[in-house]
Each structure stands twice: as C-alpha cells, then as structure tokens.
Design goal:
- The chain contains six helices and no strands.
- The protein is mainly α and about 110 residues long.
- The protein starts with 10 loop residues before the first helix and ends in a 6-residue tail after the last helix.
C-alpha cells in the first residue's frame, strides 16, 4: 500500500496517483476515471462545509476533470513519460525499476 497525505485528497493526491498509475502503464482514461472517484468520497464533506459557509469555494473539494486532463496533457507534452520525468529530476534507473516492481506487486490479480 502507498499512503499519500493531502488535505482535500483530490488534486495533489490525484497528480501523484496519476503519475504512479501511468508509470505502470495504466491508460489515461482509466487514470481520469480514478481521479473522479474522489467526488464520491468528498461530496458529503463539501455539502457540509458549504452549508456552514455558503461562500466556501466548492472547487476546493470537488474534482474537475479539466484540471486532470490539462495536467496530463502538459505533463506528457513536456516529459513524454513518467519514467523520463523521474530521470530528469535525478531518480536513478534502479530506483525507478524498484518503484515499478513495488507498484505492480499491489496490482489485483486477474482471474
């Protein structure tokens, strides 16, 4: 398991998760669908906060697909792949392979 701590749990968490999923070959559409799942978990919290304070910006807790689409488009236009990005920031090949192996261990088995 991997734990990513984030206050709202959608944008920063979504970006980290998108990069990790992409690293092991998950399709972009599946990554975007996964990002939208955060809505189901944050919806009640958002409604509660907006009931307390009608001026509370709902965008803080509710995912917007345009943000994830834009991020992924820009990221891949600039770096081409997550692996290339990791190398660009100084992660060595051995550690990239270890990360990929760790992520693949947590994949559900297909029957």
């Amino acid at each position: 398991a991997i734990l990513i701590h984030c206050t709202a749990g959608k944008d920063r968490t979504g970006v980290y998760t998108a990069l990790l999923l992409s690293l092991v070959g998950v399709d972009t559409l599946d990554i975007q669908a996964e990002y939208l799942l955060s809505f189901a978990y944050l919806r009640e919290r958002a409604k509660m906060l907006m009931a307390k304070d009608p001026s509370f910006p709902h965008c803080v807790l509710l995912p917007n697909m345009r943000y994830m689409e834009s991020f992924l488009e820009r990221f891949f236009a600039q770096y081409g792949s997550v692996e290339h990005y990791l190398k660009t920031i100084g992660v060595i090949e051995e550690n990239i392979e270890k990360l990929k192996a760790h992520l693949r261990k947590s994949e559900p088995t297909k029957n």
